[in-house]
Amino acid sequence: MDNSKFRVAVIGIGLTKFGEHWEKGLRNLAIEAGVNAVTDAKIEGKEIDAMYIGNMASGRLTGQEHLGALVADQIGMNIPATRVEAACASGGLALRQGLLSILSGQHNVVLVGGAEKMTDMSVDQVTTTLMGAADEEWEGFQGLTFPGLYALMARRHMHDYGTRREHLAMISVKNHEHASMNPIAQFQNKITVDQVLKSTMVADPLTLLDCSPVSDGAAALILCREDIAKKYTDNPVYIVGSGQASDTLALAQRKSLTRLDATIMASRAAYKQAGVAPKDINVVEVHDCFTIAELMAVEDLGFAEKGKGGKFIEEGNTKLGGKIPFNTSGGLKACGHPVGATGIKQACEVVMQLRGEAGARQVKGAEIGMTHNVGGSGATAVVHVFKK
Amino acid sequence: MHRTSVPLLWRRFKHHYRLLGNHCKTCKTDYYPPREICPTCRRKGVLEEKEFEKKGTIQTYSIIYAGPVGFDKQTPYAVALIKLDNGPVLVSQIVDAPFDQVKIGAKVTAVFRKIYEDGKEGIIHYGLKWKVV
Q1: Is the domain of B34 the same as that of B6?
Q2: CB contact, 8 Å: B34 with chain A?
Q3: DSSP assignment, residue A237?
Q4: What pLDDT is stored for residue B4 in this prediction?
């Protein structure tokens, strides 16, 4: 992106409600979000040059593969349509692929979407399927689960830095509070630290209320070249930085258990491209699949020193009205986590914030926002910086 | 529905049963599970099989209460990252000990155990779990 002569704008956003959609299947959700994005962008369907669809596990969760063609079929178009998969970072990566396709000069207007239908399967089947995002052959074989992998990181963070379970619980409490102001959120109820600590243990030290839920949902964005954005909208939001990095699939082989190096590398690349530093960011959507993941993101994205994330959160800095609001949407924890949709939903939230359309959860005067989407236990990280 | 195909794990018997990984002669790094190429030396790496001693130390742990398919009857069970005394870090279960003995820094040694049963008609998988010494 450094050498390109133009930027890419987001001119439309579309979301479904996140939650348990018993009456809707994968294709219904994907189309609903796409139509909402096209309507928001005020473009004609025929103006779209290509589509990128983020999805992690439709084959195992619903039996349906070949999602690119499925979505093109449903909207009656013959344009290139590509499914993108990077586990829980599938959405963020679909966004990045759409962005790169425009920067390459190949396309002018691109739809990027994400969708996941998870509730047709039982919880233990979903748990097993999600382990495909880790090292299934070695971690899955030993009975590890995703909450288990993040619990291993949480335990070590507590041991090394004195992080307490209360610090983790405060993240859930904050995300539920933010979600109470978000009409699409799966959980709009407020909770207390005590409730988080006393809820059912899933993988010690993480309880049920430290974990993001099983969700259905979809999200979509319309991207276009900067020079044609004003044709469609008076308030385009620009993508000014994009970073992606990879790390070992298995947690055991990482250099550190208390940070995600992929997050550090992807965010530094995105900051550099955007010419910004953490102090310039006004609002950020991070990948809080488990509370410890948000705490590590606070540190790895550069908002607090390593080991000081707990204190930074305790001081209220990440709340709406604080120094840098984290997850105004409610995050994965309370807004919900339909895996492939999450990275796109994060971008929709940041665009709403920068447009000033976030209602009760609006961050006043937000001009620069960021999204942080993680795949697996940290094997992929995708970071984007957005500017008004 | 089976969790894992039989040949997928059959290919791994010697690695699972004997704690057999590999070692790069160029950079002297140990790998478990074994790698196809040394990620540090790549084309300059020379990998040879290496059997690790079944002794290590717990780096971090968790107790799993909600298990995946095949492990649901074993819950709650302890899992840990174990730094081998003469090898790399691996992930496995800790057994034969009350949970309060599962601690960061605890010394562990491997025991041969059933890992999980793959449904009513699938095969029973075996491998190593670890106990506190």
Answers
A1: no
A2: no
A3: E
A4: 79
Provide the 10 A C-beta neighbour count for residue A4.
12
Say whether B64 and A145 touch across the interface (CB within 8 A): yes
* Whether the domain at A8-122+215-232 and the domain at A134-212+239-387 fall into the same CATH topology: yes
Domain of residue B37 covers: 20-52
A88: annotated active-site residue: yes
Best interface-test mutation with B: which of A125, A141, A149, A156 has the largest number of B CBs within 10 A? A141
With respect to CATH, is domain A8-122+215-232 assigned 3.40.50.10890?
no
Q: Which residues of A110-147 are buried (b: 16+ CB within 10 A; e: fewer)?
A: bbbbbbbbbbebeebbbbbbbbebbbbbbbbbbbbbbb
Proportion of chain A above pLDDT 90, given as a percent = 97
How many structural domains are present in chain B? Answer: 2
CATH numeric code, A134-212+239-387: 3.40.47.10
Q: What is the pLDDT of residue B1?
A: 55
Antiparallel, parallel or unpaired: β B124-132 and B89-95: parallel
Question: What per-residue confidence (pLDDT) applies to A4?
Answer: 59
Task: Kindly state the average pLDDT of the residues A66-79.
Answer: 96
Give the mutation candidate from B65, B83, B95, B128 for the A interface (greatest A CB count, under 10 A).
B65
Query: How near does any CA of chain B get to the CA of A202, in Å?
Result: 5
Distance between CA atoms of residues A216 and A24, nearest Å: 9
Distance between A2 CA and the closest CA of chain B, angstroms: 29
Put simply, whether B93 touches A (Cβ < 8 Å) is: yes
pLDDT-based confidence at residue A319 (cuts at 50, 70, 90): very high
Domain locations along chain A: 8-122+215-232, 134-212+239-387
